[in-house]
Amino acid sequence: MEMRYLGKSGLKVSVLGLGCMIFGTKGKFGEVGNVKQDDAKKMVDMSLDSGVNFFDTANVYSSGDSEVVLGKALGPKRKNAVICTKSRFSTGTGPNNEGSSRYHIINACHESLKRLNTDYIDIYMLHGMDMNTPVEETIRALDDLVRHGKVRYIGCSNFSSWHLMKALGISDRLNFERFITYQAYYSLLARDIENEIVPACLDQGLGIMVWSPLSGGYLSGQLLQ
């Protein structure tokens, strides 16, 4: 399996990763994949045996069940894996259980650590932009998580190009931890990130993670049956 450095960091990840949105059985994400623990264990083991070390999940996938399933599937092999998880969207009914406030980011990170049964998260990402929280507050919270050893690297997903550059500018100006990666929807049917996002990532030295490269199965023919 080919390995590449992720952005300008020294972290090496496999060129192929296992997306774990399909793990778990709860809520709307459970309807997407509905992969239970035994099958998830087989998929994780096959991935590791094939040289894949990158596993991508999020706290909203199956209402957190995806993280639980992934953590159990890795078990003692956790040390061989690079785990990426995310926060931003609602994780409860309370007024502060969503967004990218310091309150929600830190609470969400601690909950993800418990569900994944790990002491640290390799890559912690903002799942989307929160227009109601100052970017300085968000980046400072992520910086604190890195400094406290809860998170090793940070990144973002689904940001516009100007939101991305604003966040990077704040990190540089205030000497906060910097994003090393950007995750986006990118496939033969969706190439709009080539206009601004890809040039920005190349200029700023961010690695690009791709979600849904087969457009939800459309390009593999699964949705045509």
- Oligomer designation: single chain
Q: Which sheet architecture does the biggest sheet show?
A: 7 strands, parallel
Class of secondary structure makeup: alpha/beta
Strand segment tally: 9
What is the C-alpha radius of gyration, as a whole number of Å? Answer: 17 Å
Describe the global form: globular
In short:
The chain is an alpha/beta fold.
Description:
This protein is 35% helix and 19% strand. By secondary structure, it is an alpha/beta fold. The protein is globular, with a radius of gyration of 17 Å.
State the main characteristics.
225 residues; alpha/beta; 7-stranded parallel β-sheet; two-stranded antiparallel ribbon; 35% helix; globular
How do the strands and helices of this protein lay out in sequence?
Blueprint lengths: L2 E3 L6 E3 L2 E3 L7 H6 L4 H13 L4 E3 L8 H10 L7 E6 L14 H15 L4 E6 L8 H13 L3 E7 L3 H14 L4 E7 L11 H8 L2 E5 L14
Parallel strand pairs: 3-4, 4-5, 5-6, 6-7, 7-8, 8-9
Antiparallel strand pairs: 1-2
Helix pairs in contact: 2-3, 3-4, 4-5, 5-6
